[in-house]
Design goal:
The protein is α+β, with helices and mostly antiparallel strands. 17% of the residues lie in helices and 46% in strands. It has a 5-stranded antiparallel sheet with strand order 4-3-2-1-5, with helices on one face.
Length: 173
């Protein structure tokens, strides 16, 4: 669910949003909202539209987001489009806005019971998230898992820690 989105409209950058989740259903979003304007006025001879550019209009400060569990990528995309419309920015994005999900790579240091580094790579185009744990103590403890991008990073790390704790509790010696 942690994601970075670029919203474009008519080929120009319209907004950038970064969602970071603390649970599967709540987190924070930050972003930048852009406005477009004409840099070079339209030419008269030959007729032409001129050159258009995007400039930052305002920064969306850290805002809390809460919602129900999102079960599919289609519903996630609908949620993001609705979120953009609810920003009440001018001009509104409209239905012709294009949402581009960037591939992510995040690294988290984790302590007990895991003790190591967790790398999370998400590819929203293929709806695959890979989580790779590198142990600080034992190379044999390194693990790699795959899941849907709909899983929050913290949810996956917590599940990995629970599994590791269960394995440690079941050891005979």
């Amino acid at each position: 669910m942690d994601r970075e989105i670029s919203v474009t409209k008519e080929g120009l950058l319209f907004a950038e949003l970064k969602f970071s989740y603390e649970t599967q259903v709540s987190g924070h979003v930050e972003g930048i909202y852009y406005n477009s304007y004409w840099v070079i006025p339209p030419s008269i001879d030959p007729p032409g539209p001129g050159l258009q550019a995007s400039v930052p209009l305002f920064v969306l400060a850290k805002r809390t987001v809460k919602h129900d569990v999102i079960p599919s990528m289609q519903e996630l995309k609908e949620y993001d489009a609705l979120f953009m419309k609810q920003l009440e920015a001018y001009p509104p994005p409209g239905d012709d806005a294009v949402f581009e999900y960037k591939d992510l790579h995040r690294r988290y240091p984790v302590d007990a019971p895991l003790n190591g580094i967790v790398d999370v790579q998400a590819n929203f185009g293929e709806d695959i998230k890979t989580i790779k744990f590198t142990s600080a103590h034992n190379w044999g403890g390194d693990k790699e898992y795959a899941a849907s991008c709909l899983k929050a990073d913290v949810t996956m790390i917590a599940q990995m820690a629970e599994h590791q704790q269960t394995v440690q509790n079941n050891k005979l010696f």
